[in-house]
Every structure is written in C-alpha cells, then in structure tokens.
Design goal:
The structure is a single chain. The chain is an alpha+beta fold and about 450 residues long. It is built from 16 helices and 13 strands. The protein has helices at about 15-25, 25-35, 55-65, 75-80, 90-100, 110-125, 135-150, 155-175, 190-215, 225-230, 245-275, 275-285, 290-305, 335-340, 380-400, 435-445; strands spanning about 40-45, 50-55, 70, 135, 310-315, 320, 325, 330-335, 400, 410-415, 420, 425, 430. The strands form five sheets. It has a five-stranded mixed beta sheet with strand order 1-2-8-5-3, sandwiched between helices. Strands 4-12 form a two-stranded antiparallel ribbon. Strand 10 and strand 11 form a beta hairpin. It is globular, with a radius of gyration of 23 Å. It binds protoporphyrin IX containing FE. Protoporphyrin IX containing FE binds near residues 148, 256, 308, 370 and 380.
C-alpha cells in the first residue's frame, strides 16, 4: 500500500482553527492559500483533519473518482432530511435515485416550469415599492420557495399554504442541527431536535395528503410536477418509489434548491447595481428578446459569488493517489469552490465582474464549479439556471434597476449559503410600456 502523503497546514489546535474558521471562513481560506498554495490541511470541528484542494487537475481527478472510492460525507443530514435523502444515500441506492430523478430536471421538462416561475416572479414583484431601497433576498426567497412548491411538490390550495408556512421553519432549524451533536437522550418536544421531529411529522402529514390527492387524480399522467413524475416512475426492476423515499427526496430538493437559488439572485442584484454598463446592455437585450448576455451574467455571478464555498468528499478506500498526495481511507477532502473560482490562471483578472468572459463560451465543468461535480453534481443545476434566467428576465423587463456607487456588500454566511450581508439592497422603478420604449430610444440615441 502507498505511504500516506498529505499537504502541509497550520499546527494550531482544532479549537483555534475552528474559531477562526467560524469567525472568518473565507479570510482563513485566502490566508492558507497564500501561505501553503493550492492544497493544505486544516483541523476544524465537524470535518476534523481535512485536506483542502483547489488545483484544477486534482479537483478534476477527485470529481472523476468512482463513488466507491470517494463519496459525500455523511453528516446528520439523514436525521434531518430522512434516510432516503440524496445527502444520506451512497452507492447503488444513490445511483438508482439519480437515474430516476434526473429526467424531471432536464430538457423539455424544464420548459414546463418556466411559466410557473414567471407567474411567481410577477406576483412577488407586484408589491415592490418604487424608488425606495429594500433587501432583494426576502422576495427572492419567496419566489424560489413558491416555485419549488408548485413545480416540484405540485402543491396547490391548502397544502401550498401550509407548506409555505412550515417549510422555511423546518429547513432553518434543520440546517442548524446538522452542525450539532445528536443528543443521546430524548430532551423533549421543546428541545431543538424535539421541535425538528414535530415539524417533520407535520410535513409528512401534508405530503401524505398530496400523494393521496395525486393518486386519485385521473389526469396524473398529464401533470408535469416532480411529485407526479415520482409517482409514475419505475426503477429498472419495475419497483416504484416508496412513500418515505418520495417524502425525503421532496424535502431534500426543497432544502437544496430554494435558498441557494434565492441567494444567487440576491447577489445578481448586488453585482449588477455596481456595474451599470452591464445593466444597460442587459436591459437592451431583454427588450430585443435576447438572452445570451443574461445567461453569461448568471454564470459570472456564480463564479464571483458562489453561494456554496466548498463541496466535501470522504475517501472510502485505502490509499487514493490524488495528484501530489496519497490520501488514507476516511480522509475528508474539501474542494474549495471559492479558491478555484479566483485562480488567475483559469479566469484572467479573477476579481473583475465580467460577464463577457462567458459570452459564446461555456465554462469548463471542472473549473467553474458552483454546482460541485462528478456523480454528486447538483441535480437541480439546470433547473436553477433556468429559474434565475426567468426571474432576472422578468425583473429587467418590468423594472429599471437603479445603479449605486455604494461599496459591494460583504459575504455573510447563513449556515447553508453565503448571501450579500445586507440582503442585496435594491431600488427599482416600474417600467410602463411608454417608459420601455423611451428607455430604449434613449439608449439607442446614446449608442449612436
Ligand atoms: C444556484 C442554485 C444552486 C446551487 C449553487 C447549488 C449547489 C449545489 C452543490 C454545490 C451541491 C453539491 C455537489 C457536490 O457535492 O459535488 C448540490 C447538490 C444538490 N443539489 Fe443543488 N444547488 C442549487 C440549486 C438546486 C436546485 C434548484 C435543486 C433542486 C430543485 C438542487 C438539488 C440538489 C440536490 C438534490 C443535490 C444532491 C445531489 C446528489 O447528492 O446526488 N440544487 N447543489
């Protein structure tokens, strides 16, 4: 067996590294990168002794390694989201679920969700005040929550209202519990775990009603929501998804998809207000019915402000040779999305917000990695990109986004995702039909 070789790292005790990592995680990553280069070792709570990598060749190799050798790390997620959640299953069970649940998030299926997302965006934006600053994050969270509840859960009426009220509480509490030790004794219904289990029971009761209603629906085969597709889909052996699998996976899709998409949209607002030239071109493009620059802008927002800063793998076989290193079984590896996106060898002028770098040029899927990579790459990536595109298109079509010379907002960790510290402050004016054509004429005149 190959001798273990690990990169260097600070020798400070776990408590000290953990405290710095909690107070200033991205600063710590930058400093360690400056000191040790593209791979280093850290020792922090939750992950223990972990290796952080950001060298593109090593990242690519890890993402391409078979899941039998390197797979996700199991936190308490199975307890929070359920044992059938993507975040709790490995090996064959994971492969089977990916095969079944990938089609609803791709190709033609996605088009069916566009109308729902636009309706939700228009509905939410109808209440936006004109000329008064507010945080974009709250409205974006409501749009993405409603979009998932309708497109994925197929929820409507009473169930939609109940889930809309319950799920943010369940997800918020769940994301805190993931980092906490599991109590050995039952601390009662008022303890955080007790409350999480009570929310979960409430959630399961609503899902049972949704499943029952879908089973009774004579037009189930005409429905496009993911729940309807789950109920009709079959594994290779002819078996269908169990009620518990459906319930856990719906909750997983919502937990993974709602806040990540909303925080990226809040960053898009934050970046665009500070780049008026891009903003003007985007407004022109939307009036002309185009989308190329908008799609490139979303890619660039995700590069400069990846809301998830790292993905995690655990080595599950002895002695994996990964680039310069030989990693022992059980080794935790963090792929730093944050660091690789700032690599000047991959993205010239990496700190500059420049959507043009992606116009007519798709990014390399092992270097531009806001959705992670390999067999665990985000299953909702195409859904999220379509959703962000539709929300941004609606915003630019119906409003003028007012630029600002304020300093950029700092990164703030919400536990799961990094958001702009002030929630992405936004100021808008509604564009009437006359205003749309006069804006267009003014821009055309300025360009002439
Ligand atoms: C901008 C929005 C989003 C971002 C930045 C994001 C990011 C990520 C990342 C970094 C991972 C881990 C990948 C890895 O370990 O290599 C992941 C996994 C996952 N995401 Fe997303 N995500 C987003 C939206 C969504 C949406 C909309 C959904 C579903 C509707 C979703 C569902 C999932 C699921 C189920 C997984 C686990 C996949 C597996 O383990 O096989 N995500 N996402």
């Amino acid at each position: 067996m190959n001798a273990v070789t690990l990169p260097d790292g600070p020798s400070l005790p776990r408590f000290v590294q953990g405290t710095v990592g909690l107070a200033a995680p991205l600063w710590m990553m930058r400093k360690l990168h400056e000191r040790y280069g593209s791979a280093f070792r850290i020792n922090i709570p939750i992950f223990g002794e972990a290796v952080v990598i950001s060298d593109p060749a090593e990242v690519k190799q890890l993402f391409m390694t078979s899941p039998e050798v390197a797979d996700i790390l199991d936190f308490n997620l199975g307890l929070v989201l359920g044992p059938h959640s993507f975040f709790a299953i490995r090996g064959d069970a994971h492969r089977k679920q990916r095969k079944l649940l990938t089609p609803p998030f791709h190709g033609r299926r996605l088009q069916a969700y566009e109308a729902i997302i636009e309706q939700e965006a228009v509905r939410e934006m109808a209440a936006w005040p004109e000329g008064r600053e507010f945080a974009a994050l709250g409205p974006m969270m409501r749009i993405t929550l409603n979009a998932i509840l309708r497109a994925v859960f197929g929820a409507d009426g009473a169930e939609l209202a109940e889930l809309r009220e319950l799920l943010p509480r369940l997800v918020k509490l769940g994301s805190r519990l993931v980092a906490l030790p599991i109590p050995r004794t039952d601390l009662g219904r008022w303890s955080p775990w007790g409350r999480a289990y009570a929310y979960r029971r409430e959630y399961d009761a609503i899902i049972d009603r949704l499943i029952e209603a879908a089973r009774q629906d004579p037009r189930l085969d005409e429905r496009d929501d993911v729940l309807a597709l789950m109920l009709q889909s079959r594994y290779d052996d002819g078996g269908s998804m169990s009620r518990d699998e459906i319930s856990d996976q719906l909750l997983t899709l919502l937990s993974a998809g709602h806040e990540t998409t909303a925080t990226t949209l809040a960053w898009a607002v934050e970046r665009l207000r500070r780049h008026p030239a891009v903003l003007r071109r985007l407004a022109d493009e939307v009036d002309a019915g185009g989308s190329q620059l908008r799609e490139a802008t979303i890619l660039e927002v995700q590069r400069v402000r990846p809301v998830i800063d790292a993905t995690v793998r655990e080595i599950c076989a002895p002695g994996l040779r990964l680039g310069r290193w030989t990693l022992p079984e059980g080794q935790v590896v963090l792929v730093s999305i944050y660091l690789i996106h700032r690599d000047p060898a991959l993205f010239p002028n990496p700190y500059r917000f420049d959507p043009d770098r992606f116009v007519g040029h798709r990014p390399d899927s092992y270097q531009w990695i806001p959705f992670g990579g390999g067999t665990r790459r985000c299953i909702g990536a195409a859904f999220a990109q379509m959703e962000m595109n539709v929300v941004l298109r609606t915003l630019l079509r119906d409003f003028t986004l007012v630029p600002t010379s304020d300093r950029g907002e700092r990164w703030h960790s919400r536990g799961v995702a990094y958001c702009p510290a002030k929630g992405g402050r936004i100021v808008v004016h509604r564009r009437t039909a006359e205003r749309q054509s006069s804006d267009h004429a003014a821009r055309a005149g300025a360009a002439a």
